[in-house]
Amino acid sequence: MTLIAKKIKELAKDVGYVDCGIASTELFSEFSAAIDQRIREFPALACEYEKMRKRAFPRQNNPWANAIVVCVHWYGKYRIPENISNGIGRSYLFDRRNSDCPDHDLPERMKKGLEQLGLRVRRGGVPDRWAAVRAGVARFGRNNFVYTEKHGSWLNIEPFLVDAELTPDEPSYEIACPDSCRLCVEECPTKALQRPFCMRFDHCIAYLSYNAPEPIEPELWRLMGPWVYGCDQCQLVCPLNADKWREREAAEWLEKMAPYLSTDALAEMDDATYREVVQPAFWYIAADEVERWRRNARRARDRVLG
Ligand code: SF4
Ligand code: SF4
């Protein structure tokens, strides 16, 4: 490993990432091919898929970039406060972009550190998970999430384009899953995960819960069951995630919010609570759409009671 690569990896560790690898800036041809395949299968969603394609061409968009530094952030270290609805996806609970989360400024500190090493830097701009695999820091599971052996899929992948000529690390193209496992596909409530590696995003509960035009088709609405905001089902059933949520650290910012985040509280949440407490931390539902939260939470609550 060259001295600069060593320094970059030490920096990532000091900043708080659990791993860091180096990838080339070549075309992400597999990512582009995966987009082509989705468009063939779901032509009505072509526009949405096409929006993602530009990330396949890091060099074309950033001719100065010579390598990708791929950092791994693990949020499975936090204790989930009691009473918080199980229907909120964990990546949203522990979203590092929330300014009260202690990991909030990880990318900024990494970017500054890279600049102090004399590098030109741009955050993002590549397909995160594919970059992680190319950099050898994670492997794909059949649910399309990426996994590390030590941390499961409770990860954020944060890539940085840099101008340094760095030798890429060995990619990890082999998938993470045992041969016979298909649990994620079998347990996907809406069958959005239609087969391994093929997820129809407009049927995914995450999209349906906060982004899809309403009203949601009644059968999909029923299948959303206990999920209020996002969905973790294909990660929760995954054997690769067994014992990977370690709950070592208190999530103080979330503990303060916990009384407002039970399914019951969300179902009856008043406008002021939504505006002042919930929406600033969970911003995928717009500030004037509190009723969407209430409907999602009431479905989840009534399903549990029923
Ligand atoms: S997040 Fe939920 S709905 Fe989406 S693919 Fe996974 S299990 Fe299915
Ligand atoms: S549930 Fe099984 S098939 Fe799906 S990602 Fe996990 S190990 Fe792979």
Q: What number of domains?
A: 2
Number of helices, counting only DSSP H or I runs of 4 residues or more: 15
Low-confidence runs: none
**Relative strand content:** 5-15%
Radius of gyration: 20 Å
The helicity comes to 25-40%
Mean pLDDT: 96
The run of helices and strands is HEHHHEHHEHEEEHEEHHHHHHH
Give the overall shape: globular
Strand runs, count: 8
Distance between the termini: 59 Å
Q: Helix/strand/pairing class, anyone? A: alpha+beta
Side-by-side strand order of the widest sheet: 1-2-6-3
Main β-sheet description: 4 strands, antiparallel
List cofactors, ions and other ligands: iron/sulfur cluster
- Assembly level: single chain
Describe the structure.
The chain is α+β, with helices and mostly antiparallel strands and 306 residues long. Helix content is 38%, strand content 11%. The strands form three sheets. A four-stranded antiparallel β-sheet has the order 1-2-6-3, sandwiched between helices. One iron/sulfur cluster is lined by residues 141-143, 177-178, 181-184, 237-240.
